[in-house]
């Protein structure tokens, strides 16, 4: 298994923010699966869904997962909300499920200065009743595939990252002044 940390969880739970903070604290590279998909097909996620549909998008996730497993190591991987369903996810690295209750996720999005953009860029978050049902369905999948569960509700991203570092045994480089 590659020495990657793979962050999974429902959309907007903070996987990207956490990946960036883990990168900052550990010096590892961070990659975002949605960014990889967008650069691969030269379209944004909303346009991929609108033009080609969800099944096509899921196939792209599978392609990215295979590439990550074969070519990437010592990296923090931020995934999309449905990425946990890709085959052999554990081949990529240690799977960390970031979780929060649905209402807390929605409240955090609504409280964000760019709330409209955050909702608009997530095709599966357009209908909140449908999104809640999706959350309920995916919650069990996340728990099944994860090596670690981390509750992020109301916690600063720096503390979430510190918990991941502690629980996974990631090495944190010494500050330059202590080397």
UniProtKB/TrEMBL annotation:
Pathways involved: Metabolic intermediate biosynthesis; chorismate biosynthesis; chorismate from D-erythrose 4-phosphate and phosphoenolpyruvate: step 5/7
Location of this chain's protein in the cell: Cytoplasm
Keyword tRNA-binding belongs to the record: no
Chain ranges passing through the membrane: none
One GO molecular-function entry: shikimate kinase activity
Record bears the keyword Transferase: yes
SUPFAM superfamilies referenced in this protein's UniProt entry, alphabetically: P-loop containing nucleoside triphosphate hydrolases
Residues involved in substrate binding: 34, 58, 81, 138
InterPro entries for this protein: P-loop_NTPase, Shikimate/glucono_kinase, Shikimate_kinase/TSH1
Parts forming coiled coils: none
Entry's EC annotation: 2.7.1.71
Catalytic activity line of the entry: shikimate + ATP = 3-phosphoshikimate + ADP + H(+)
Keywords recorded for this protein, A-Z: Amino-acid biosynthesis, Aromatic amino acid biosynthesis, ATP-binding, Cytoplasm, Kinase, Magnesium, Metal-binding, Nucleotide-binding, Transferase
Known cofactor(s): Mg(2+)
Co-factor binding comment: Binds 1 Mg(2+) ion per subunit.
UniProt cross-references to HAMAP family, sorted A to Z: Shikimate_kinase
UniProt cross-references to PANTHER family, sorted A to Z: SHIKIMATE KINASE (PTHR21087), SHIKIMATE KINASE 1, CHLOROPLASTIC (PTHR21087:SF16)
Family: Belongs to the shikimate kinase family.
Subunit structure: Monomer.
Name of the featured protein: Shikimate kinase
């Amino acid at each position: 298994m590659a020495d990657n940390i793979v962050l999974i969880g429902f959309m907007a739970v903070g996987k990207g923010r956490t990946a960036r903070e883990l990168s900052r604290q550990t010096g590892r590279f961070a990659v975002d699966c949605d960014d990889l998909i967008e650069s691969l097909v030269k379209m944004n996620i909303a346009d991929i869904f609108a033009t080609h549909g969800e099944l096509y998008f899921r196939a792209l996730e599978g392609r990215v997962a295979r590439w990550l497993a074969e070519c990437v190591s010592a990296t923090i991987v931020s995934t999309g909300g449905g990425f946990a369903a890709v085959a052999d996810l554990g081949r990529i690295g240690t799977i960390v499920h970031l979780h929060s209750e649905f209402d807390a996720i929605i409240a955090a999005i609504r409280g964000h200065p760019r709330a409209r953009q955050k909702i608009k860029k997530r095709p599966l978050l357009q209908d909140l009743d449908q999104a809640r049902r999706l959350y309920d369905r995916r919650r069990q999948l996340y728990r099944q595939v994860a090596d670690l569960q981390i509750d992020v509700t109301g916690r600063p991203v720096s503390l979430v990252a510190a918990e991941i570092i502690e629980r996974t045994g990631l090495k944190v480089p010494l500050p330059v002044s202590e080397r």
